Amino acid sequence: MNVPKSGYRVFSANSSAACTELAKKITERLGVELGKSVVFQESNSETRVDVKESVRGQTIFIIQTIPRDVNTAIMELLIMAYALKTSCAKNIIGVIPYFPYSKQCKMRKRGSIVSKLLASMLAKAGLTHIITMDLHQKEIQGFFSFPVDNLRASPFLIQYIQEEIPDYRNAIIVAKSPAAAKRAQSYAERLRLGLAVIHGEAQCSESDMADGRHSPPCVRNTTGNTGLELPLMMAKEKPPITVVGDVGGRIAIIVDDIIDDVGDFVAAAEILKERGAYKIYIMATHGLLSADAPRLIEESAIDEVVVTNTVPHEVQKLQCPKIKTVDVSMILAEAIRRIHNGESMAYLFRNITVDD
Hints:
Elements: E1 8-12, H1 17-30, E2 37-41, E3 47-51, E4 59-63, H2 70-86, E5 91-96, H3 114-125, E6 129-133, E7 148-151, H4 154-164, E8 171-175, H5 181-191, E9 194-199, E10 242-244, E11 251-259, H6 263-274, E12 279-287, H7 293-298, E13 304-308, H8 314-319, E14 323-326, H9 329-341
Parallel strand pairs: 1-4, 4-5, 5-6, 6-7, 8-9, 8-11, 11-12, 12-13, 13-14
Antiparallel strand pairs: 2-3, 9-10
Helix pairs in contact: 1-9, 2-3
GO molecular function, one term: ATP binding
Pfam family, one: Pribosyl_synth
GO cellular component, one term: cytoplasm
């Protein structure tokens, strides 16, 4: 009787240059070959996946970066996971450095919590585990019915600050809104630097007015009790924009998890420049940099934008030399190795607190 050899393979879920490059960096660090598969689009835009080798009884890691066409990338991941499931793979683990739709993790108006829907789809397709990095909200882990390892990019970004920013001791960590203060505080404490918070920025996405809770009630013809009169909540009034903390004559380093629409960052940079900051850096894990982001950054007061390679952004770098990349393939490769060998993941979370 032939007993299948237990092992693991690493596949790339799409054939884009960025995903293939990240997959090759990871496999080189692991000392294994990239799995043979073909992922392409049919003439009618349907996704087709063809796995070129046997995966029976093996643990499979699928690396999927999320390019601009988010929905196609999701379908590639789902179809590949299902193909491996039906090919009798033992475990199917998704390595998704940037988890898509992570901003849609709360109910807005009369919409849906898309992160929960995507988590259910991934489980149904056959995934048994996920490795990701810096989820937009850590509570998203609770949407999954299987383990989720939420790695951190902060050690790599902090190392970049220490090695690549001259005179970083004269820097101050800035949160572009009170909501980002917790992340900024973590950076400030680790680098032994001061903290500043920009207060007064419009928070349209968090507005209760856009939540549907102020919709007028339906008029009904009733003869009974018309209901209780509930106390009316006082409307919010946005205060004037202020900077809490002294940034005069300092290097300002704005930290966040995602940089996509850069309008808020550009406005924050202008405010910091007015308050006397002489250099402005932005540090973020996921550089989505959609639409006109490269042009806006190039024309702004921002000196440098530093992001990791969790999301492909080579085109944006060609458009804007201010964008720099930090490689995080090392921690992804180590996570794969530890999961396959059944080793503890605690080593990857050394000195990481719940609030980080």
